[in-house]
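Colleagues,

For the teaching module next term, I've prepared a clean inverse folding example: a structure given as tokens, and then the sequence designed for it. I'd like students to try predicting residues themselves before seeing the answer, so please don't circulate the second half yet.
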């Protein structure tokens, strides 16, 4: 389900697509409750009807929410709206002109960006 700027998932408003891959789409979104930008990860449309993929996605959200490490984005929320599962997490900085292969760079805190030198 490709989202467009201005679409809403729960209390998050989509601002921009950051990147997409086989296991998800990442969007910059605005958390209207806490008044801050976040990264929203959603499953791609082809996996929304796959219960196994949805279970793995939820497991990923639960596992990440239990981690606290400077190189891992903090998980804020996991929810479902109209059959779309989404994960809200900390949005890192990063160069706006990164290639699609460097989109993960944007979600990493500065300490975790070693090895992504071509994305600076």
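(Answer key — instructors only)
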């Amino acid at each position: 389900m490709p989202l467009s700027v201005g679409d809403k998932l729960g209390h998050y408003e989509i601002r921009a697509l950051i990147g997409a891959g086989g296991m998800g789409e990442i969007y910059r979104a605005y958390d209207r409750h806490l008044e801050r930008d976040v990264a929203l990860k959603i499953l791609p449309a082809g996996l929304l009807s796959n219960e196994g993929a949805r279970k793995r996605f939820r497991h990923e959200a639960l596992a990440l929410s239990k981690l606290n490490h400077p190189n891992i984005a903090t998980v804020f929320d996991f929810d479902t709206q109209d059959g779309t599962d989404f994960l809200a997490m900390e949005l890192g900085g990063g160069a706006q002109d990164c290639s699609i292969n460097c989109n993960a760079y944007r979600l990493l805190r500065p300490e975790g960006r070693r090895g992504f030198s071509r994305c600076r």
